[in-house]
Amino acid sequence: MTENDSAVQAIIKEIEQLPENKSYTERGISPIFQFHQEAKILLVGQAPGKKVEESGIPFHDLSGKRLMEWMGISEAIFYGKAIAIVPMDLYYPGKGKGGDLPPR
User: Fold this and answer.
1) What integer best gives the mean pLDDT of the chain?
2) Residue 55 φ then ψ, to 5°
3) How far is 27 from 46, CA to CA, in rounded Å?
4) Consecutive H or E run containing 76
5) What long-range pairs does 1-9 form, CB within 8 A, spacing at least 24?
């Protein structure tokens, strides 16, 4: 494990230990993001959806396919080292009356 890997693992542990994330941690759900030290592009999203929560892979749903089409890039590039993906909320916020709840 590199120094960078250790730092990322420490950040993940801190996120998981926050009281507002307790229910996710107890269910074995990890924060959902993608980061590579060599990333040249930072993509900021709203919050993961239910399918993404289940897979643990950012944008691993219809919205991700659409986004890749709009960006004109392949899945290999999208999930490669050049792109970091960080949502406003690292967990799926749940369902509300009109659809998914907003990020917490």
Assistant:
1) 92
2) -90, -30
3) 22
4) helix 75-78
5) 4/37, 8/35
Q: Using DSSP, how many helices (H) and how many strands (E) does the chain show?
A: 5, 4
Residue type, 79: Y
At 39, list the tokens: 């990333």
Contact 88, 44 (CB under 8 A): yes
Residues of the chain with pLDDT > 90, as a percent, come to: 77
C-alpha–C-alpha distance, residues 88 and 13, integer Å: 18
At 42, which amino acid appears? L
Q: Which CATH superfamily is domain 3-96 in?
A: Uracil-DNA glycosylase-like domain (3.40.470.10)
Domains of the chain, by residue range, sit at 3-96
For residue 70, what are the contacts with CB-CB under 8 A and spacing of at least 6?
none
Measuring CA to CA, which residue among 69, 71, 79, 88 is closest to residue 39?
Answer: 79
At residue 78, the 3 state secondary structure works out as helix
pLDDT at residue 94 is higher than 90: no
